[in-house]
Design goal:
heterodimer, A: about 500 residues, two-stranded antiparallel ribbon, B: alpha/beta, D-Maltodextrin-Binding Protein, domain 2
Chain lengths: ~500, ~325
């Protein structure tokens, strides 16, 4: 069995004392930066790149990879405890995770997030080991037209995300798409919606909006309504999920893992879509969708698994084809070139130690992360006991540092403050920020893929029908839209599901 | 009374010691190297290699600061405005410090006037790459295909004003064809669609595409250099393909803000030139797909001369392309 030999080779590399240590170090750093809002893996890995000069390439990459998926674990902690997504991919976790914390189930939410991530990480690692090459080929079946249709489907999901009124959700999505068009046009270099403010040339960073409308706005709201904060402090509840919790989370974790594993492969950070998609599917499948947004454990388990699975499979295009699907993977390319490794289609055959060593280390890393994270739940939950007047300045400080570290640009901090105010106004007016963020994330890809598809078809819109994947996804989108907007059908559907 | 002269002497000594210290003992603290692109790309990696090697010579660490934005203009502006003491230097390449004059009408600096250059440390030729099942196998066949199909040829590039865009513009001006351009955000997405067959190819640096050509997932030809490239011995040059006019060498170099103390500038320039003889640096740059400039092409004065001629050349190319390929 060749695969067995390969896996053994991988473990022999990853279980070396030095690599084991580096893996642990990476996971630890990753968890910490994931917890700190705004300080993302991109900033951390670029800061730590020079340190890896002295380490052998396999060890260096094992550590950097650990930082990356460790950050996905850590990101959920801040999302659940203080309603601030530590990572872009944790936005969805705030929806039900923080509600669970308010109900005194913070420990359960953190626990299921960690366990879901672990299960997803393990399955995704197996997928990489067994199916890396066919999976990468599958991702290449997606042409710009198909990708565009996938984004449309993603926007339909955003409607489902909404707790309250659908028109308000659609307004938020469109506002998000609009925000994503700020900055120089990629194709013509024309300035768009920057009002002569050259700082906006490259558009608004995702972290700026996320920290603003979630982080700062949440703090403003808590300061305005101190009583809502006290609820979180009063009750701590049990620390680990119960048997019932596990039963409710089992299928969401499996489904989330499947979704995440697939979306993580797609270029242009498709993994961001994974938690949103998982949440929407769980909400659709739930016997009682109204629980979502009020602390449904499926709404934490599914997206967290999707998120972590996506983080792992994002390595597939990098390791098999030499294509970095997101900014972190682009950094990994840099780390490889610094170590005289040229990432490309040959890495698997020419560097088997690196390839299989990294895969084995991912599994070990996931095991380490759950060992690091489960005992920490008690500490994290106790953090809620810290008086808010002490907690919130610390959060603001960390947010500011994090935002600054994204581009080393002070303007980003001011912008975040402005978005904080905007977010507060939105909360007061009962608009939800999550669809806004999804619209923002998808907006840019939506535009780019539309323009690419149209350029390739030389202006023929039929391209979206001729590409079969695109046609199917657009059809699903239309059906989803009809179901969402027709109130009579919604009611009927709810009754059907209730039975 | 005896003490005063001693005090004066001591004071004088201190002052004397303090004055030249800044020049003689330069550098006394770490040096910041501004890279106007995100970490991980060829620009960033080459800067880190330079910083690491120069740091060893100068006895101080180099801190890389990535200030991405506006195709490199944001970070380069910060480099231009930095205190000219030698403790902040920056990275620039053919795009940020030459072609930008032609492509960005609002460029907030003039690369011909606003910097003291330390020297070019790396050049990398451009080439044309196409998907592996593309009908044309050589540059001649490719040119014939382009002329026959015109807009039917779909070439990707990495954004308005990027080096891959400029190279494509230059190439298609030479053969007098206007292909369909498909624009991507960065090389990762462009190469993805070449591998998937959605587009036909791109024009890019050897440094970016060498692994895909070596691995057989894309085909390269029309290397815009005088001789074949050691890393890609099977890729024919543009001259071999019958288009000797296609010469596009992208260079990467370092600068300091205008007006730093001459002694400090000299030290930095010496270090930037000296590291190019370091075998470790040479190996790194070679594997990256780069060529280390010949001794006559090293140093700040040579870099300024190349910038002056490149600015003129790109102004001409962009003017012929119908004005704006704005950044």
């Amino acid at each position: 069995m060749e695969i067995f030999d390969n896996i053994m080779l991988g473990f022999s590399v990853a279980l070396g004392l030095k690599n084991l240590g580096l893996c642990f170090l990476g996971c630890m750093i990753g968890t910490l930066i994931g917890v700190l809002p705004g300080v993302g893996p991109v900033a951390t890995i670029s800061m730590l790149l020079p340190i890896t000069f002295g380490i052998d390439p396999v060890g260096a990459l094992i550590m950097l990879a650990g930082i990356y998926y460790g950050a996905q674990y850590g990101g959920s902690t801040t999302a659940i405890l203080v309603n601030i997504p530590g990572e872009a991919t944790s936005v969805v976790t705030t929806l039900d995770g923080h509600q669970m914390a308010r109900q005194g189930r913070a420990g359960v939410a953190l626990g299921i997030a960690a366990i879901g991530s672990f299960v997803a990480g393990c399955i995704a690692t197996i997928i990489i080991a067994l199916l890396a090459v066919p999976m990468a080929r599958m991702a290449l079946l997606f042409k710009p037209a198909d990708y565009f249709a996938l984004m449309i489907l993603g926007l339909m999901l955003a409607v489902v995300l909404a707790r309250g009124s659908i028109p308000k959700a659609i307004a938020m999505i469109l506002a998000g798409v609009l925000l994503s068009t700020v900055g120089r046009d990629l194709e013509t270099g024309e300035e768009r919606l920057i009002f002569g403010w050259s700082e906006l040339d490259d558009g608004i960073d995702f972290a700026v909006i996320a920290m603003g409308v979630f982080g700062f706005a949440e703090i403003l709201r808590n300061l305005y309504m101190p009583e809502s904060r006290n609820v979180v402090q009063a009750t701590i509840g049990r620390l680990l999920p119960s048997r019932l919790d596990f039963r409710q989370s089992f299928w969401p974790i499996i489904r989330g893992t499947g979704l995440g594993s697939f979306l993580g492969l797609l270029p242009g950070n498709g993994a961001v879509l994974a938690p949103f998609a998982s949440y929407s599917i769980e909400k659709k499948l739930a016997t009682d969708p109204s629980r979502f947004g009020c602390g449904a454990i499926e709404g934490v388990a599914g997206p967290e698994s999707a998120n972590n699975a996506g983080a792992q499979t994002a390595f597939i295009p990098l390791l098999t084809l030499g294509i970095p699907p997101n900014a972190v993977m682009a950094l990994m390319v840099g780390a490889m070139t610094i170590h005289n490794l040229v990432p490309g289609p040959e890495i698997m055959t020419k560097q088997p130690k690196l390839f299989w060593g990294m895969i084995a280390s991912m599994w070990i890393g996931n095991l380490m992360l759950i060992v690091i994270n489960l005992p920490m739940i008690g500490i994290w939950v106790r953090l809620l006991k810290v008086p808010y007047r002490l907690l919130f300045p610390a959060i603001v400080l960390f947010c500011c540092i994090g935002i600054y570290s994204v581009n080393n640009n002070p303007v980003d901090v001011y912008l975040t403050a402005a978005f904080g105010l905007l977010g507060y106004v939105l909360i007061r007016l009962d608009f939800e920020p999550a669809p806004l963020l999804l619209g923002f994330v998808l907006g840019r890809l939506l535009e780019e893929k539309l323009r690419q598809a149209m350029a390739i078809s030389r202006g023929s819109a039929w391209t979206f029908v001729e590409h079969r994947i695109a046609a199917v996804m657009l059809a699903i989108s239309v059906v989803a839209l009809i179901i969402a907007v027709l109130p009579s059908m919604r009611q009927k559907r709810n009754i059907v599901f209730a039975e | 009374m005896l003490r005063l002269p001693r005090l004066v002497a001591a004071l004088a000594l201190t002052i004397l010691a303090a004055l030249p210290v800044s020049a003689q003992n330069f550098p006394e603290r770490p040096i910041t190297l501004i890279v106007p692109f995100a970490a991980g790309g060829a620009s960033d990696v080459s800067s880190r290699i330079m910083g690491e090697a120069m740091g060893k010579i100068l006895g101080q660490a180099f801190i890389i600061e990535n200030v991405a934005g506006a195709g490199g203009a944001t970070g380069s502006l910060r480099g231009k405005n930095a205190t000219p003491d030698g403790y902040t230097i920056g990275f620039g390449h053919m795009g940020t410090h030459a072609a930008s004059v032609a492509t960005n009408p609002k460029l907030p600096f003039d690369p011909r006037k606003d910097f003291d250059y330390l020297g070019i440390h790396l050049t990398t030729p451009n080439l044309i790459i196409v998907r592996k099942d593309f009908p044309a196998k050589t540059l001649q066949e490719y040119i014939a295909y382009a002329k026959a199909n015109g807009k039917g040829l779909k070439m990707g590039h990495n954004g308005a004003g990027s080096l891959s865009h400029l190279t494509c513009v230059l190439f298609f001006q030479l053969i007098n064809v206007e292909p369909t351009y498909v624009v991507y955000r960065g090389f990762g997405q462009t190469i993805n669609d070449i591998l998937s067959g959605a587009i036909d190819g791109t024009c890019d640096l050897v440094a970016s595409v060498s692994s895909h050509v070596l691995g057989g997932s894309a085909r390269g030809f029309g290397l815009a250099a005088d001789t074949r490239f050691p890393l890609l011995p099977d890729v024919p040059t543009a001259t071999e393909g019958g288009l000797p006019e296609f010469k596009a060498n992208s260079w990467l170099g370092l600068y300091a803000p205008k007006g730093i103390p001459p002694a400090n500038l000299a030290k930095l320039r010496d270090a930037a030139v000296k590291v190019l003889d370091d075998p470790a640096v040479q190996k790194h740059f070679h594997d990256l797909g780069g060529i280390i400039p010949a001794p006559k092409d090293r140093g700040g004065d040579r870099m300024l001369a190349i910038i002056n001629s490149d600015v003129t050349r790109w102004l001409e190319v962009v003017r012929k392309a119908g004005g704006v390929v704005a950044q």
